[in-house]
Every structure is written in C-alpha cells, then in structure tokens.
C-alpha cells in the first residue's frame, strides 16, 4: 500500500474575524469555526487519498479560548492516522492578537473521514508517516482515540434505536 508523509496532507488557512463572524459576546461563533474546521479537514483528507473524502464523524471540538474581532484565526490541519479506509484528521486553531502578535491555541479538533470511489464505496487509503515530534505524538495516541470513537459510535447506534422519528404532534 502507498504511504504518504503527514506534511503532504498539511493545510493552513488564515483569516480575519469580522463583525458578521461574532456572537452577542463579541466572540467568534462556534458554529462558524466548526464549519471552517470541517472544510479544511476535508482538504487534508482528500490530499491523502486523492478521492472524495467524506466526514464520518467530528470526534471532538474543544474551544479553549475565545476568538475576538481583534484577532486573526489560523486553522492548520493534517492527517494524523489512517486505518484501512478511514483517516483521522487533526485541526489546530490558533488565534493571533493583531495588535500584540500574541498567539495562542484557541481550539483543537479531531475528525474522521472515509475515502470514497466514484460509486461511493470506501477505498483503501495510504498509510501515513509522521515526521515531527508533534506528528509522532498525535500518531502514537491515535489508537486510544480510535477505541473511544468506536465505543461512542456503538453507543450512538443503540441510542438512535431508542429515539422516535414521528413528528411531535403525531405522537
């Protein structure tokens, strides 16, 4: 099976925070940031497998610091681990105070993607080769996250069987 270096999947996006991007607390909307996270992660996933990559799950989004209109926001994504047809993508969100230059991690996120062929069937994806200390740490800890992801998915399936699908007024 083909192998690729993590660096071949790395993407970076930097943007300003405008008034339309913030909520009533004058901080960036979480949903807007989540959309940007999914977007850039999908590009990293596609760069690995060079086929359509779809989001299988957003495993976590941890908002650590508020992002304000005086900040720029930088999203950095890369594939951290691969299974047979799935891949884990990490997104690091860095806010930079444009007045002082101070940079801080504002959020982190892990997502899982699956590569699909032209018939929407899962395809095998290349194995990933970590090179930097940060990449190796994320690669080495991916097994535990995969176990938690699998357990959470099974629990979600059981829970979904319990939920009703009728409209509230039809119950």
TrEMBL record:
Source organism superkingdom: Bacteria
Keyword Hydrolase applies: yes
The HotDog ACOT-type domain, residue ranges: 7-119
Keywords tagged on the record: Hydrolase
Any one GO molecular-function label of the UniProt entry: long-chain fatty acyl-CoA hydrolase activity
Family annotation (PROSITE patterns): HOTDOG_ACOT
GO CC, one annotated term: cytosol
One example of a Gene Ontology biological process annotation: acyl-CoA metabolic process
Keyword DNA repair in record: no
UniProt similarity note: Belongs to the acyl coenzyme A hydrolase family.
InterPro entries per UniProt: Cytosol_ACT, HOTDOG_ACOT, HotDog_dom_sf, Thioestr_dom
Pfam families membership: 4HBT
Protein name per its UniProtKB record: Acyl-CoA thioesterase
SUPFAM superfamilies according to UniProt: Thioesterase/thiol ester dehydrase-isomerase
Matches recorded under PANTHER family: ACYL COENZYME A THIOESTER HYDROLASE, CYTOSOLIC ACYL COENZYME A THIOESTER HYDROLASE
